[in-house]
Amino acid sequence: MAAPQREMPKTVIKTIETKVEKAKSGKGYDFVLSDASVDRYGDIIKTDGWVLENFQKNPIALFNHSAMLPIGSWSGIEVKDQALRGTLQLAADGTSDRIDEIKALVEAGILRSVSVGFTPIAYKSYQSEDTYGYIYEKQELIECSLVSIPANPNAVMLAKKLNISDETQQMVFRRGSDSPVVVKQVQSAKGSAYIAAHERRRVLRSQVDELISKLGIRALNDAKVRELHAEIQRIDESLR
Helix, strand or coil for residue 71? Predict the structure, then answer.
């Protein structure tokens, strides 16, 4: 029986585990951000369809897609050898204890997954005997994060040997998700309030993104960014 059709999301997040390599030129770490392989949802992202211009204007690198966790920036974003590639430039040593710990986990090969968020521009569906998926033919890169990984005993043991704090370990070893992000549609008496809350959240996120664009890594300790993020969290809790 053929798999059922999925709703096309407005924004898509895809995660790929890759080999961490020291940058071939200069400092940083080279990553494959995306390739054309079939993911676990049956989707394929055409590598020649990436639209990168807007992202390259402000290539901030985040952790776990959180605007509150800028960790550096991306450079050299390009499609090469059938993959979207880039170099992660982590913030300088001493910027924060959290970033220093993340850098140690990258160097140890524990953190090796990156996740792209993109907006589909052109796509088509396809169906095989047991799979229904999308082929993304053109898509705009919105954001790219270093992301957490599921816990495993060896990785946790190595993190402890590196003296990684309990707080960072909890953040790193939680199970993430590369499932499509879809805005729910509510057809009920609560619909107007639900939509208004989402609109408020969208405005707040836009303000946070604007501040990050201006402040860069300094946004990590900015009082206004923290205030906006706290309000976003309150909205998220009310929508659960």
Answer: strand
User: Do residues 51 and 152 share a domain?
Assistant: yes
Distance between CA atoms of 56 and 80, rounded to whole angstroms? 16
Would 182 be classed as within a structural domain? no
Which residues, at least 6 apart from 91, have a Cβ–Cβ distance to it below 8 Å?
70, 71, 72, 99, 217
Per-residue pLDDT of the chain (240 residues; tens, 9 = 90+): 444 454 555 567 777 776 667 776 668 889 889 888 887 667 889 999 999 999 998 898 988 888 778 899 999 999 998 899 999 999 888 888 888 999 899 888 888 888 888 888 888 887 776 666 788 999 999 888 888 876 666 677 778 888 888 888 888 876 544 443 333 333 334 445 655 666 677 678 777 767 776 776 676 677 887 888 788 778 767 755
Could you give the residue ranges of the DSSP H alpha helices within the chain?
53-57, 97-107, 153-161, 166-172, 191-215, 223-239
Report the alpha-carbon distance of residue 57 to residue 44 in Å, rounded.
26
Residues 119 and 221 in one domain: no
Specify whether the CB–CB gap between 213 and 192 falls below 8 A. Answer: no
Model confidence pTM above 0.70: no
Sort 140 into a burial class: Cβ within 10 Å, 0-12 / 13-18 / 19+: middle
Residue 88 and residue 31 in contact, taking contact as beta carbons nearer than 8 Å: yes
155 falls within a domain: yes
CA 190-177-203 angle, to 5 degrees, is 45
**65 φ/ψ sector (left φ>0, alpha ψ -120 to 50, else beta):** left
Q: Rounded to the nearest 5°, which phi and psi values hold at 16?
A: -135, 135
Domain that holds residue 228: 191-239
